[in-house]
From TrEMBL:
Residues 39-263 form the Calcineurin-like phosphoesterase domain. Residues 362-596 form the Putative 5'-nucleotidase C-terminal domain. The keyword Oxidoreductase does not apply. It comes from Helicocarpus griseus UAMH5409. This is Uncharacterized protein.
């Protein structure tokens, strides 16, 4: 029945681009791209979302559509004698069933990804968490993009010889096809420390002292430095690189591309040096252009100062048609249709449309304040965790579970909850562990420490970054004061952490655009960055964004019936709605163990995480726990399938 339906959908959609089940794009008011001598398209933090967003029209184009888009843009700019370069700044893996649900992981995505021609790309941190995934980079993706994949500060232990070798070339120098612009390009990763021990990430500060880098930036025959990296554009790492290059070249243009924080962002280092970050999850195709660069040493004739532009393109066909002046019959190419088909076939092979249940309402990570009935976190702590974790409790013991909010990666939309939904919600393989008989007051203090004493945790040896950088969703990082857009006063989070006011990073209605009668605005990104508020290609109405704590917790009843604890306090600290137990079995996601260890020490709890903790619930992951709850509680009504 289901497969027949899918087959029919597949047939009826064969002339269209995008995935057959993707929603149609919604017309919206648009801003145009400003093409220059040198143009860029940029993806970052795609995390396996090569099928696009099948529940959100604004981001429903797939990797095949992006291939068609890039090829049309290339034709257009090359017809004017200009150049186009494609960039990807890593975190291509983990975060979507298309990557995570195959065995081995990534069985389909590397082949799909390589169908796009990319001129310069690099690794993210996610490629390096596991031995397998970094080896896949070395053995598959680096060769797929031979010469274009750069790794300025990553080494890997060669899987065959065991020798330490660069993951990919440190840098490259090349000349653009149309104009002969001489470019020196680097590919960095931020100062990441949680990688598996088969890779070595050298801190950027050290890399830029190395001879090869010093030689590369002393090259006099360069028209543009191109620094790409899985690095926030506003970061110490990029400031250091910027200063090192400027130390040698006081006025050569520098274009940075960055990522990691999952935000749209643009940084101005000086009049001739800018950095673009292009969002996450195939929601955004970043566009940048430069006019007035010298070509092969010939001074630019257009102006003495180069001009830089940027746009954040919503990844949907409405945007793609608009910027290419094409339509549904003229836009797709043979290759883009092939790639859309490859994605469709992989999704079928992985059974990503398998339905576990039907979600009665939208549940949000950050669009509503926490706690809230529409918050995913409230749903987890009130329903999912108490119900499912209770089945793993020791007899006559009360449990307290702590999970980090960053373990959740995406919203849940009303409607079918599929295999795909489960992997988008939480792609991680992290399972639960627990410590026995922890005094309840200590357990509560542990949660307090994780949520409020981030400074202590930031000083963890080797951590180098605050707890919120790893425990909370990455988007939230950008709201921390120290890394906020300089010119963007409003996004500075001057509120106490507990305050629940909407943050303004994505939330500025005063776009300065005349309101257009039609088509009308739909909710989406309303970015303010170093160049102003006209960066989004699509003129949206704003979406609220609320801060969440680093961690949430739930009390778990002592028997398998959860009725007696159906309403624990909705606050991140456990309230007095339940009778206080003397001790609890403290259950946590193993991902947060390093922070738990530090927090146990800080509150003086006598728990050695290496010796005193055990696997909980047979090693089931958070994703499996959620799926079980959905199967038991969100039955589809007849006919919903
Ligand atoms: C955008 O470009 C199209 C042609 O491609 C043009 O008709 C339209 O006027 C431009 N819009 C703006 C706001 O410049
Ligand atoms: C690594 O990949 C191999 C072969 O593809 C697979 O057998 C193995 O289970 C993987 N290991 C992990 C930890 O995923
Ligand atoms: C890397 O970690 C593994 C455990 O995951 C350990 O067995 C191995 O000895 C470590 N290798 C090095 C070089 O530290
Ligand atoms: C698409 O554009 C072509 C060429 O401009 C035109 O002939 C065709 O009718 C258009 N198709 C649709 C569906 O708008
Ligand atoms: C598309 O796929 C077909 C059949 O698999 C193949 O023959 C053709 O070369 C492909 N074309 C492109 C442009 O990838
Ligand atoms: C939240 O849901 C609970 C139970 O479903 C209900 O009793 C309560 O009124 C709801 N709260 C709000 C603010 O809607
Ligand atoms: C749990 O409590 C019940 C009732 O108080 C008691 O009968 C049972 O023996 C206890 N089980 C364990 C394992 O302590
Ligand atoms: C920035 O914020 C401060 C205090 O919040 C305010 O006094 C100042 O005027 C603001 N600056 C700009 C440029 O808006």
């Amino acid at each position: 029945m289901t497969s027949l339906l899918l087959a029919l959908l597949g047939l009826s959609a064969s002339t269209l681009a995008a995935q057959p089940s993707a929603p149609k794009p919604i017309p919206a008011p648009m801003r145009n791209l400003t093409f220059g001598q040198l143009n860029f398209l940029h993806t970052t933090d795609t995390h396996g979302w090569l099928a696009g967003h099948l529940r959100e029209p604004s981001y429903a184009a797939d990797w095949g559509d992006y291939i068609a888009f890039a090829s049309h843009i290339r034709e257009k700019v090359e017809a004017d004698g200009a150049d186009l370069l494609l960039i990807d700044t890593g975190d291509r893996i983990e975060g979507n069933g298309l990557y995570d649900s195959s065995e081995p992981k990534g069985l389909y995505t590397a082949d799909i990804f390589k169908q796009q021609h990319i001129d310069v790309l690099c690794s993210g941190n996610h490629e390096l968490y596991k031995k397998n995934s970094s080896e896949d980079e070395y053995l598959i993706t680096v060769p797929n993009f031979k010469g274009n994949y750069l790794s300025s500060n990553i080494d890997i232990m060669n899987p065959q010889s065991g020798e330490r070798v660069p993951l990919a070339p440190r840098f490259k120098k090349f000349i653009t096809q149309k104009q002969g612009i001489r470019i020196v390009a680097f590919g960095f990763l931020f100062d990441f420390t949680q990688n598996y021990n088969n890779t070595i990430v050298q801190p950027v500060e050290e890399t830029i002292k190395e001879q090869w880098f010093q030689d590369a930036i002393r090259d006099k025959d360069v028209d543009l430095f191109l620094v790409i990296g899985h690095v926030p554009v506003q970061s110490k790492e990029y400031t250091d690189i910027y200063k090192a290059i400027r130390g040698m070249h006081w006025d050569t243009p520098i274009q940075f591309f960055g990522g990691h924080q999952h935000i749209r962002d643009y940084a101005k280092y000086d009049e001739k040096a800018y950095g673009l970050a292009s969002g996450r999850f195939m929601e955004t195709i970043g566009f940048a252009s430069i006019n007035g660069v010298s070509t092969g040493g010939k001074k630019a004739s257009i102006s003495t100062n180069p001009t830089f532009t940027r746009k954040y393109i919503d990844n949907n066909l409405w945007s793609f048609y608009h910027h290419t002046n094409l339509n549904e019959s003229t836009f797709p190419t043979q290759q883009s249709k092939n790639v859309s088909k490859m994605i469709e076939n992989a999704r079928h092979a992985l059974n990503l449309d398998h339905i576990y249940g039907c979600t009665p309402q939208d549940l949000w990570m950050s669009r509503v304040q926490y706690p809230h009935n529409d918050s995913i976190y409230t749903w987890l702590e009130k329903q999912v965790l108490p119900d499912i974790l209770s089945t793993g409790m020791r007899a006559n013991k009360t449990g307290m579970a702590i999970i980090n909010t960053g373990a959740i990666r995406f919203d849940i939309f009303k409607g079918p909850f599929t295999q795909d939904t489960a992997f988008m919600l939480s792609p991680f393989t992290s399972a639960f562990r627990y410590a026995k008989d922890v005094p309840y007051d200590k357990a509560k203090q542990v949660l307090e420490v994780l949520n409020r004493q981030m400074k202590i945790l930031a000083e963890m040896p080797g951590s180098g970054l605050s707890a919120s950088a790893f425990l909370a969703p990455p988007e939230q990082l950008a709201m921390d004061k120290d890394i906020v857009v300089d010119d963007d006063n409003e996004s500075q989070v001057q509120l106490p952490k507990s305050d629940q006011k909407p943050l303004s990073l994505y939330n500025d209605d005063d776009s300065g655009e005349p309101s257009e009668p039609s088509p009308s605005r739909i909710p989406g990104y309303t970015t303010k960055d170093a160049a102003g508020d006209d960066g989004d290609d699509t003129i949206h109405s704003p979406i609220s964004y609320y801060r969440v704590p680093n961690c949430i917790s739930a009390l778990i009843a002592e028997s398998s019936s959860s009725s007696s604890f159906s309403s624990p306090s909705p606050s991140p600290t456990l309230g007095n709605a339940v009778a206080d137990p003397q001790t609890v079995d403290l259950v946590y996601l193993d991902f947060i163990e390093p922070w738990m260890e530090q927090a146990f020490k800080f509150v003086g709890a006598d728990v050695d995480v290496k010796k005193d903790t055990e696997v909980f619930l047979d090693g089931n992951t958070l994703t499996q726990v959620v799926v079980r709850w959905v199967e038991e509680n969100w039955k589809c009504k007849d006919g919903a399938e």
